[in-house]
Amino acid sequence: QEKSSCLSAALFGEDCEISHDQLYELLKYAALGRSHNATQPSWCHISHQSHLAGVVVVILNEMSQLHFYKFYLQFKHLRRVFRHRFTLTPSANFPSSLYGEGTNLKPQNTAQGLNSTSGDCPPKSSGLQRNPIIRKYGEKKQGLTSYTLTLEEQKKNDYPIKGSPECKGYIYTECDQQRTDSSPLFGLDCEMCLTVKGNEVTRVSLVDAQGQCLLNELVKPETTVMNYRTKFSGITKKMLLPVKTKLSDIQTRLKKLLPHDAVLVGHSLNSDLQALEMIHPSVIDTSLLFARNAGRRFKLKFLAKAVLGKEIQCEERLGHDPAEDARAALELAQFFIEQGPAKVAELNLEKLLTDEKLAEASQNKAALQARGCRVQKQLNEPPRVPKACFLDCLQVTGQKPLLLGREEPDPSGLCQSNPSSSNKQILQRALEDVPQSTFSIIQFSLGPEDIASHPLAGLCAKVRSKLTDMLTIYAGPFEESFCLKSVKKEFEMCGPIQSLTVVAETYQPYVCIQYEVLEAAQLAVESLNETEVAGSCIKVQRPVTAAMLDCEVWIKELELDVENEGVIYVAGLKKSLTEADLQEEFSQLKDLETLFLPKDLQSGKHRNCCFLKFWKPQSALAALEVLNGWTVKGSKLRTRNALASGHLWRWIRQMNHSNGKQGGSIVHEKREQLSDSEQDLRKKVKRLDQYIKKLYGSLQNNTLCIVLFPGANSMHGSQSGLGLMGIKDGRGRSA
């Protein structure tokens, strides 16, 4: 009997956040096996990789984990089929992080869509016409205004835009004067640290067209620093202690320093302006100016060396020097403008980058040999280019990567498709072409108008409010002289409490309790409603709001979610119990796979609840019967089916942590009537789910399928992405 491939992953609780490097690691191994230095991923395991029928990656462009939760009920197929899920760290350049930075794959426009045949290695360029810089700008020399980003390009690359709802509170530089080819250039660079708020500026540098430093200042973040990122920022806790300069001070100084026709230059300048919370209408972004294929970007360090012959960001130095980086970006823009696209294209930067990586790999190999490295097998292999040619490797092995998308036609993009192509047309092409391909990337997109009319900040507020309501219960009425401590003790038996407040507006006292986990709130409603607590027979209910009318539907669908299959929630644990104690107590339960004990973000101490995951769903049901009312070292347990045991649990915890500094009071936003645009968006999302269902149904058994919500960057911090994956089995589900 033919062996089936199987995917296993420890994506439970704390371990469900995956980086793009780890995702790349999985894709490379799934497609190539042990050839081309591909190894089993460190975070999951594919059994019998050689028996995989193929790999299909579905990308839902411009969507994040936030969209999955907002439209959870509409994504019926995704949540009932894909068992393995993970939070995906957001990336400024998603295609590059997914495909690899050195991909030379050139898609071909065919009648069937974008289909990259790969029998041969990519052909060498026959002249400058194929260079992405020439395709984007032409060969003739032009003035600087030809290289400033258009408003559409700024929107596409997450630049803060004047009048955008997401940029409320941002400072406008008021540089509104008409730009000419003689307008002054200014280089700008910032270093950021990770704080509770997100990325906050801790150092700012501004240089003029002559390279003179006009501003080089440390900045005190508004909120607590969680990670100084010293390796890159060069910032330490000690450096910031005496600093008094605030972000508002820097904003004022920059406004005074910049003339009304100033053009700002930087490398991925959108990140700097977002962190500065400033809007500037005219920018040159050197990461986009030196165009590449596949939406990838050259690093500033490489460009400075290859184009200017300068070494920056030296490893001997602690962190980057923002003045040095600002000056390098400025000089790169000046070089491009003065020399013109043809001269820049003649540098053949792609080849220089490949040569540099090969040389580096060769040096590393020589160094290992000099130290007498014991891994002889690795030494005998050709020098490898780390994460540089994933799709190229597919071509070398004779596989046929299929790339289908609905992106805007962009000479530097991997998916050059007709923008008039609908998701339905892309689906039809995929149904025809995926069976002939061993590795497919299918990109679906919502319309630009849908993204524009539903900004991330608005979606985030709605999802946050919905989850807060679901975590909240009201209990009462109580006697005037009731014991609040007794009430808290009783309700804590259902799970960890985020906040507890007395409602004073009612005739008799009620309490409002916000839990940290969904299961605790649901358990309180199920087990304490119409019971006697603190001497009163009380009613326990959730907030009565328009958004909560479908709460029971949500609870039912969460219970049916395939990720929660075989997982139960256990509350009422004594905090003195250790994980070892619980392992011993629960060891007699049949088919127990994993025990997850949540911990407090601040203290690191575990909470009074845990999740138990079983190999078989029927064993989980049996454990529910055994554990409900069971006593563990004097503590009576309460249990129920899990509702948010994996990725959702982690996200709720982060939300609670960010809300925890606001006094613990529950504020419910005013619900407005569902707009026509949101109703339309719900229909489109539901249709997308149906398209993925059809595509998944057409796949051969033993196909690895991964659905990715790439995530997005916003001024309120980054919105994480989401990945769902599984290997299709004979039942049409993922293993």
Automatic annotation (TrEMBL):
Record's keyword terms, sorted: Exonuclease, Hydrolase, Nuclease, RNA-binding
GO function terms (MF aspect): exonuclease activity; RNA binding
Compositionally biased tracts (Polar residues): 105-119
Residue ranges, annotated region (Disordered): 105-127, 660-679
Pfam annotation, one family: RNase_T
Bias kind Basic and acidic residues: ranges: 667-679
RRM domain residues: 566-644
GO cellular component, one term: nucleus
PANTHER family (UniProt xref): RNA EXONUCLEASE 5, RNA EXONUCLEASE REXO1 / RECO3 FAMILY MEMBER-RELATED
UniProt-recorded name of the protein: Putative RNA exonuclease NEF-sp
